[in-house]
Amino acid sequence: MCENTLSSAPLSATTKPSELANAPRAYAIGENAGEIASHLFPGHEVIECDNLPEEPAQRLLLNCCLQYLTYGAGLAALQTAGALVLPGGELHVIVPSADWAVRELMKPEPSPAAEFVLYGKQWREDEVYHSGWTIPRLRTFISRCGFIVREARALDAAWTLRGPDGQEREEPIRLNYVVGVKANVSDRE
After folding, report:
1. What Cα–Cα distance (Å) separates residue 122 from each residue in 46, 71, 125, 128?
2. DSSP conformational letter for 67
3. At 48, which CATH number?
4. pLDDT tens digits for range 156-169
5. CA–CA distances in Å: residue 170 to residues 40, 157, 161
6. How far apart are alpha carbons 136 and 122 in whole angstroms?
7. What angle do CA 37, 99, 133 make, to 5 degrees?
8. Residue 141 included in any domain
9. What is the pTM assigned to this prediction?
10. Residue 125 CB partners (closer than 8 Å, separation 6+)
């Protein structure tokens, strides 16, 4: 199996209009990331990207994309993303919760989202790699990238999944949300 990576060149980027003339820049990567970033980063110019851009920004959101990478590729992606965040800026990471999925699978009637979180799916006959992320592991990886973890918590959410009958259903899921603040050089000394 080949290791997936987030590339450093955006395939496409769209800028959401900002009401502030010189608003700080924020990047949003992942499904629905632009909408989420607009809520998380009011007053910022939110730029949706398919991949990691090259210009620095005050804030960066990675929404539900690290689980498709091996841990080595995930750490490399976090390091690259971290290098894009300006000192004092924030890295926001949202991933499906592996610990929730394990507990959920032990229930008599688990959410189908739990299997998806742990085992992935087949997409166009190619295997999609899934790695499980817990809050402690994510905190460790983000800290290794030069960030001070400001917030780490679980979020209740719902995913729309297609069942074996072809019908789409909302299924409960828990996401892990970690925010790191990029340390200034003087903070690390």
Report:
1. 32, 20, 6, 6
2. G
3. 3.40.50.150
4. 998 888 777 888 88
5. 24, 10, 6
6. 28
7. 50
8. yes
9. 0.82
10. none
